[in-house]
Design a protein that fits this description.
The complex is a heterodimer of chains A (343) and B (329). Chain A is built from twelve helices and two strands; from the N terminus they run αααββααααααααα. With 343 residues, chain A is mostly helical. Chain B is mainly alpha-helical and 329 residues long. The longest helix of chain B has 37 residues. Chain B has 14 helices and four strands.
């Protein structure tokens, strides 16, 4: 087991490096971060030059990458522009936990990200829980009542579910639950933000503001997953041990809930584990629509400003998270299904 | 009783004179049995007719600011601020947008862009995916290792992020281009390439797995023994036998690419105005969610309908071309 983990990590680390190099190079083509400062762009060319030097943007690409990766405290940098490096560098590099400073706000990139991360995680974990509960319920019920009206209806709906663009589903939900409910004089749901500034950041407010983003993120996944649960449930229900369980007189509820469900949900574990990175991607669109202050929205905002320390920070965190989740998924699976041996 | 008596001789006649169907005819026969796929095919043809011919009917009128009678895309891009944000009416059946352009005309020309992006991005994806998968599977060893490690590396970052980064990096380097007599924003070409470059990984894995199992078969050993070149074995003997999953996945990538385009354009990082696309028509809609629902309703509905139809057709194709595969939906 330990060997397996080490081997997988040994494979993933060069991949993460490769990705970081490619992404770093791509971000050089993003356009001048100084120019995107807007009103805060220094008007004088000499000042702009000084700012570039302070941010290390005047260095050749490989030096910039190295300072990002391992820091520049081992070398001296030229701050006053006379061609002689004199000031010792201060950056520690990503490998030592320093993601660099945001080019826009001069604050540590890591701080900006970790400020937003809890908001995204709150949204994502809720979405994941909703997805698991509802796709299991719908999937099991559909399998149980195969070809019933409910089953056919859900099958049709699931096709719509994974054909619908996230912006449309979000806009439809907003239109229905906010605009129309308001027009009809019913209690309506808030559309944007995380809490009403007049009420404050109370758990109730946050829960209320989460309803629509969670719905629009989870409906699409529930559509696909409930079908998946249904088909693996149907497969299991046809097996001999289920017939045996029924033959020895167990109640149908026990047969389904205890004997069938356990085996039917095994592949589901993999699906959920590998789905987490995609939820992050879904969050980019959803957070932008609902103005949810999470990392996805931060990513979109900072892309427009070419703030690459923050962008690299978000991307590398996701990359590491994906690698770890894949590993955890594989290991969990091998625990749940002893037939699978990981070596 | 009479019906069975009547049907039996005809069945006998049929069996004495067997109708020989080639594999494509057999596939078509199976496809026709998938009711939703057939309906979807008809609806998709109608959508095609709407976006390729609709311009001749609906996109004409006087563009007030320049005081000229314009047709075609010029009409779709004509902004008349005096009629901005008008609800659907006879003159503008789908209403007008935030700067007074006719939404009906824009759904037509935006549809051309969105569907072209879907098709061409899928072509790029299939080219890369098939090539990588076939080469990795056929040559094996270090080639396979290298290509699969790169494929895995690409899968580590969710493709929407890769897409945004690539799109931003390449954005602006492609100048305005003229394709089929239409001046298109260079962003369209960038989006096509970028969607293709970020979505080939799953197809590569499918093709590789198929090639891996096929290349162990005797007919491949025989070809090798006869001295057939590697390229010929791959393109002539291996790939035609994996054509079913390739077609199915290419179909589904068209719908995937249309959805992806709508996401990036919605974020303002995709197709740039004045070129319309169904995705960028949704862009400004959130701000007008209360006052102008027609802004997003029609393009959104068209995306949903098109993607839904393509997905059903993909499902039908799976049944038709690959009868052994189990249907999960």
């Amino acid at each position: 087991m330990l060997n397996y983990i080490i081997r997988r990590l040994a494979q993933a680390i060069p991949q993460l490096f490769l990705i970081s190099i490619v992404l770093f190079m791509l971000m050089q083509a993003f356009g001048d971060p100084i120019a995107s400062l807007g009103v805060r762009t220094p008007p004088r060319p000499a000042d702009r030059e000084r700012l570039r030097r302070q941010l290390g943007l005047d260095q050749p690409l490989y030096i910039q990458y190295l300072s990002w990766l391992i820091g520049n405290d081992w070398m001296k940098i030229d701050m006053d522009g006379d061609g002689v490096p004199e000031t010792p560098g201060k950056r520690l590099g990503v490998l030592r936990g320093d993601f660099g400073n945001s080019l826009i706000s001069k604050r540590p990139a890591l701080e900006l990200i970790t400020e937003r991360l809890p908001n995204t995680l709150l949204l994502m974990i809720t979405v994941e829980v909703v997805i698991i509960i509802f796709s299991l319920m719908i999937g099991v019920y559909s399998a149980f009542k195969q070809y019933s009206f409910f089953d056919n209806f859900v099958t049709g709906l699931s096709f719509v579910g994974y054909s619908i663009p996230i912006p449309l589903i979000a806009l439809l939900l907003m239109y229905f639950f906010s605009v129309n409910f308001k027009n009809w004089g019913l209690p309506y749901l808030p559309t944007v933000g995380m809490f009403d500034p007049q009420v404050g950041r109370t758990p109730g407010q946050i829960a209320l503001h989460m309803i629509l983003p969670v719905l629009s993120l989870s409906i699409i996944s529930i559509a696909g997953y409930s079908r998946y649960v249904r088909s693996s449930m149907l497969e299991v229900l046809g097996l001999d041990y289920i017939r045996t369980a029924r033959a020895k007189g167990l109640r149908e509820r026990i047969v389904v809930m205890k004997h069938a469900l356990r085996n039917a949900t095994l592949p589901f574990v993999t699906l959920i584990g590998l789905d987490i990175p995609f939820l992050f991607a879904g969050a980019v669109v959803t957070e932008s629509i609902f103005a949810w202050p999470g990392t996805g929205r931060l990513f979109v905002e900072r892309t427009a400003q070419s703030d690459f320390p923050v962008l690299m920070g978000i991307l590398m965190m996701i990359g590491v998270a994906v690698v770890i989740f894949q590993l955890i998924t594989d290991i969990t699976y091998s625990f749940l299904d002893p037939r699978i041996r990981i070596e | 009783m009479t019906t069975t008596a009547l049907s039996q001789p005809s069945a006998l006649v049929e069996s004495t004179e067997p109708v020989i169907l080639n594999p494509w005819q057999l596939a078509w026969r199976r496809f026709r049995r998938h009711r939703m796929a057939v309906i979807s095919l008809i609806v998709l043809v109608l959508i095609f007719a709407y976006i390729w011919l609709g311009g001749l009917v609906f996109a004409r009128g006087t563009c007030v600011p320049i005081d000229k009678y314009v047709t075609g895309e010029a009409y779709a891009n004509c902004n008349d601020l005096s009629i901005k944000l008008q609800p659907p009416s006879l003159a503008h059946p789908f209403g007008t947008d935030t700067i007074g352009r006719d939404i009906l005309a824009r759904t037509i020309y935006g549809g051309q862009i969105s569907l072209s992006i879907g098709v061409f991005a899928a072509i790029v994806e299939v080219l890369i995916g098939v090539l990588v998968g076939a080469v990795a599977g056929y040559f094996g060893r270090w080639v396979d290792d290298l290509l699969m490690r790169i494929t895995e590396a690409m899968l580590i970052i969710p493709s929407l992020f890769l897409l945004i980064v690539l799109g931003k990096a390449l954005g602006g380097i492609v100048p305005e281009v003229e394709i089929l007599g239409r001046a298109l924003s260079g962003s369209v070409v960038v989006i096509i390439l970028v969607i293709g470059f970020t979505s080939w990984m799953y197809l590569a894995r499918i093709v590789r797995a198929n090639v891996l199992s096929l290349k162990e078969l005797d007919y491949i050993s025989a070809s090798r023994a006869l001295g057939v070149s590697d390229a010929r074995i791959i393109f002539k003997h291996l790939l035609p036998n994996t054509i079913a999953p390739i077609i199915v996945s290419a179909t589904l990538s068209v719908s995937g690419a249309i959805l992806t385009e709508s996401y990036v354009s919605f974020l303002g990082l995709g197709v740039q105005t004045p070129t319309a696309s169904w995705g960028n028509m949704l862009d400004s809609a959130v701000k007008y969610i209360q006052s102008a629902p027609w802004l997003w309703f029609f393009p959104g509905l068209l995306i949903l309908l098109t993607v839904l139809c393509i997905n059903f057709i993909g499902d039908g194709l799976r049944d038709a071309l690959d009868p052994r595969s189990t249907r999960h939906v």
